[in-house]
Amino acid sequence: MTFGPNVGNVGMYVAREMLAAVPEDQRDAYLRMVEGISDLKYQLGVEVARQLPRLLAQSDPELVARYLSQVTAVAKLGWKSGVEVAKQLPDLYEAPDGELADNYVDIIEHATTGIAEDAETTQLSAELAQLEREIQEMEKRNAGLAQQVGRKKDYIDRLKSNPAAQELEIRKRLKLLHPEEKVYITGDSERPAQPPAGKNP
User: What percent of the chain has pLDDT over 70?
Assistant: First the structure.
């Protein structure tokens, strides 16, 4: 599912079939857009990754910019609302009423903002936001660990199918040599023993 070292964690959100649906000359931009929106929330990146190929296929940069701007604006108020908007907007853009999408976003923004918060609610919101950031960091770390595990599994699979590689790995770990081989050990020479404290050498 991943696409190389330059993609970062985007491979966690973008399936191969999604990338294949994007015109080849727009794929780098697509991956950057997904990565940028994913900084707000992992789940948001997943949904935007699903919807963007459909918009990019229309070759309308202004529409794509409008989509990302509206999704980002709502997501900053509440990521769950942002995910829902990301899912619905592409259909609303195709509605006969050209203002339907904008009206929908306005309604969601007002509903997400809600009434003015008191001091306690504001504090709880701040704590929740902090928890969200910590979860996001954990998700990024987990993504990195998943990539490491994937690389190790690939290496194990290669060892299973390559006897020569197996032998090399075993010899390296057990420091084994063939009869005709020599090994050279280099390192710092041993330091002279230090005299006991309080005594001159």
Answer: 77
